[in-house]
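Here is a typical protein record:
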Amino acid sequence: MREMALMPPSSKDAKLQLGEPWAGKLADFCAAYLNAPQKEVIRAALDFYIDAELAANAGVKERYEKARQKRLSNGNIRSLKPIDD
């Protein structure tokens, strides 16, 4: 197995502004996970984390639902159409 050389953060890393160690952890995981795109890994992680927190904390779930409803009723709805990178 070939070892990867440490690379300076890409523009994607700079855009996310995760800082270390998270930018490195994300890059390492994406590389290990068949070079998965960072945004797909982040989306999956957010889905998992948000669902777990909402299930564990009724107060957060209530505030989340109110905030979501407010955002949706204000017309701040993003298109669900996939966007090519």
